[in-house]
Amino acid sequence: MKLLTEKGIQATPMSAIAKAAGTGMGTIYNYFPTKEELINAIYLYIKNLEVQFITRKTNESSLKIKFLDYYKAFIDFNLQYPDCFAFMDQMQNSPVISCHTKEKGKAEFLQIIELIQKGQDEGIIKKMSIEAILQFLAGTMTAYVRWMLGIKENERKKYLDHQLRMVWDAIKE
Amino acid sequence: MKLLTEKGIQATPMSAIAKAAGTGMGTIYNYFPTKEELINAIYLYIKNLEVQFITRKTNESSLKIKFLDYYKAFIDFNLQYPDCFAFMDQMQNSPVISCHTKEKGKAEFLQIIELIQKGQDEGIIKKMSIEAILQFLAGTMTAYVRWMLGIKENERKKYLDHQLRMVWDAIKE
Amino acid sequence: MKLLTEKGIQATPMSAIAKAAGTGMGTIYNYFPTKEELINAIYLYIKNLEVQFITRKTNESSLKIKFLDYYKAFIDFNLQYPDCFAFMDQMQNSPVISCHTKEKGKAEFLQIIELIQKGQDEGIIKKMSIEAILQFLAGTMTAYVRWMLGIKENERKKYLDHQLRMVWDAIKE
Amino acid sequence: MKLLTEKGIQATPMSAIAKAAGTGMGTIYNYFPTKEELINAIYLYIKNLEVQFITRKTNESSLKIKFLDYYKAFIDFNLQYPDCFAFMDQMQNSPVISCHTKEKGKAEFLQIIELIQKGQDEGIIKKMSIEAILQFLAGTMTAYVRWMLGIKENERKKYLDHQLRMVWDAIKE
DNA sequence: AATGAATGAGACTTCATTCAT
DNA sequence: GATGAATGAAGTCTCATTCAT
């Protein structure tokens, strides 16, 4: 991941990946038939990691707090694994990631979808298409993390509350 | 642009670019010393286009309407030139775009910055760091356009109002 | 070597070299990072061959005979491997051969140097700087071989004695 | 010449030659149909210069002194125009110089040939084939000049006498 | 006559993939 | 199963030459 994002996919030979992975090129090809499939596999692997990280906590509080906890968890994950973020950010629009992979990656946000729908039913969250809200949230989060990763770690904290306020104001009824 | 985004940078040889441009490879190299510099130049060219497109209109209305007009103009530009959007979206995080180019690209949002600051002074817009707001807005816009470009043109209209509502609610005091 | 000297460095693509070597281009690049380094390596390889060829024989005769035997050995080597000679002759002044390589190539004439110094001590050879004598000898030898290679093999013999006479007269006290 | 020898023929584009010559590429092609012919023309031009330089002086002294004057004149020419020397030295064995050009270049040493033959007739110079002597002399001279050009100018003087002594001893009866 | 922008053939070099070990 | 040397297709870039100005 680190190699792939630092230099770009095309500038990272399989030999370098094998070396960094402490294995031989041939071994990689025993598990992934092509470089492309390796990258798609990494993509899905990270998506999985992400979901596991985020759905870990299931506290019992108000819907708003639950929602913001999710949102914060997303951010935390990406700030904690900046290489993962950089990788995903870069692959998002790359022709290397197949549609099939993208579909698979999406199918894991059930919990948050349910939460938002519940919020809409209770009149707390704006009555819009789920897709609109999800896209909106993803956009804000990506931009926020990308920004945070560009500034020093000790300066990050102060921006979180503002971000959460904007996000909540955006979707709340 | 089209080739570069459809196939990816590395899968697009200079020979193909030259052919599509109706010129010889050598000619391109007379103007851009490397493929990388060509891509950086396209990046800046689009940024320029964008700014010109957006700052065209200077209506005399309320700050909120002015702001949303800007926001809509951004969206319009990108929906109108989907190739440009795809290109920028893909290059944004690519190691091919140099820091220097990114800096140059940024230095053109004075108008919108001034508008937001005025809104903050008037108590209309949340008192947060400009950067936080700009990053937030950029994130929402990119996600929105990317989404819109993925659905049929006649279905797009209905989502715009929702998007604008979320955006405004997010930043308004 | 043959290709490189016959056609010239630049007129000999690596693909042709690989073909002649019965291998793939990539394989060559696994051992020599650039064409230039390949050529420098060939240069040093020949220098080595040469030294081994020349220092083979250690007869026990007069200093003059020993010296002329060395000189003849040099000539023999180059006449025996005309491709080597052509290569060295052409690369000698080429900007492709690095200073470093030239230095390395030089460091192998200790035996002949010692012989000349002994001759000087015994009053048999002119008391001049070793460098002056070595350069002189190298010049005569190169010219002689180049000439010989231009004429038919059976006509060569008769010129050797004359050459040796001139060489010895030149350096003898 | 300077460009051609410093970088090598292949590394010197016509555009660079034109620039250094203060003219346009097209203009060069009006006079020399190809790069190769330009180089051959330079070769002949230098050969001509050389002959004119050497045959300038016709003193009336002993044959030995006359001969050594010629030899010194050759050396002087090359030390005075080191670029010419480097050029000729490099082109000597290059496949770029055509046989025809080489032949033309040779046809200009009549004076020195006559001098040597006279010396042979008078029993002053060894009775060998003229070609053998000419090749020998050319070899010594080239090596000497190449060596001299590699050392500081103020250190050169002291080696000349030694060189002349070796050369004369080599060919004198 | 002088020019130099345009051109594409062809150079060097990389690297995904294979396969004998 | 692991390995990495071998491979050549394909990429970037150069530059001799042309030709409209």
Automatic annotation (TrEMBL), chains A, B, C, D:
Signal peptide: none annotated. Keywords: DNA-binding. Gene3D superfamilies: Tetracycline Repressor, domain 2. GO terms for molecular function: DNA binding. Residues 13-32 bind DNA. Pfam families: TetR_C_10 (PF16295), TetR_N (PF00440). It comes from Chryseobacterium shigense. The lineage of its organism: Bacteria, Pseudomonadati, Bacteroidota, Flavobacteriia, Flavobacteriales. This is AcrR family transcriptional regulator. SUPFAM superfamilies: Homeodomain-like, Tetracyclin repressor-like, C-terminal domain. Residues 1-50 form the HTH tetR-type domain. It comes from the Bacteria. The keyword Repeat does not apply.
